[in-house]
Amino acid sequence: MALGQLAKWCFGLENAGDAKFGLSEAQRDAGARPQLWANKQPGMSYLDAPSIPDERIAMPNRTWDWGEDDQEANARMRRHAEAWPANAKEVDEFTAIIYANYGPDALAGDGQDDESEGSAVSEYVRTEDPSPEIEAGPDDPIEAADDAKFPERTGLKMEPGEARGVLLGHLQAWVREGRNEFATRDLCIVRQRTGLSRAWIIAQLNMLAEDGVIERDDARRSYRIIRADVLTPEPAGV
Predict the structure, then answer these.
(1) DSSP for 111-169?
(2) What does DSSP say about strands 8-11 and 44-48: parallel, antiparallel, or unpaired?
(3) Residue 183 CB partners (closer than 8 Å, separation 6+)
(4) Is the full-model pTM beyond 0.85?
(5) Which sign, positive or negative, has the C-alpha torsion 121, 126, 128, 130?
(6) What's the pLDDT band for 235 if we cut at 50, 70, 90?
C-alpha cells in the first residue's frame, strides 16, 4: 500500500524482474526499460512523480555528478547554489500568503523576553502554564485513568454542494494562473480539503466532461479545461 503511494524514480537494474519494483505501471506501458542500462550508465534514470508530464515518465534522464569526493562535491554544490540562489526565485501568490501569515516576521515575538536565551523550551512557550498544580518528572510512569475515553474518529466530510464548489474553485484558480491541463493526481489537495474519495473526484470530472467544461485526453491520461467561463463555484448545499 505505502509503496504504491510513492513516486517512482528508477536507475539502471540488472533484470526486468527488478524493474517492476522501481517503475510505475504507466512507465512500463510507455516502454521504460532500465534493465538495459544495468550498471553501465551511471546516473541514468526514469522518473514518474507529481508535476512530471505523462509523456516524459519514460524519457531517460541523467542526474547530477557532483564529484568523486566530498571536497569536490561540496565545491560544485556551492557554485551551483551561488548561481541559482533561492532568494532570486519569483514567489507565487500561495507561498506569499503562507509566508505573510506564518513566516518568521508574522511569528516573531516582541523581543522583550530574552531572559531564557539558549533554552529551546522557553523559546517556543509563550503562554502561562494552564495547570501549574500538575507536576511530573521525566521518569514518572504514565498511568491512564480507568474511565479514560479517547475521542472517536468522526471522518468529517463536506456536503456535496460545498465540495463541488471547492473543486470548481481549484480549477478556476488554475485558469487564472494560465494552466488548463491537469491529471487526477493533481487534485489530491481537493480530496484533503473535502474529505471525499478519489471515486467522488472521478465522478465529478466525468460530469464536467459531459457538460463540456473539460475534456479527457486518454492518450495523455489527463484533462483539459475548455469552458473556463462556467467554472463558478456553486453555493454550499446545492
Answers:
(1) S---TTTT-HHHHH--S--S-TT----TTSPP---TT---PPP------HHHHHHHHHH
(2) antiparallel
(3) 54, 221, 222, 223
(4) no
(5) negative
(6) very low
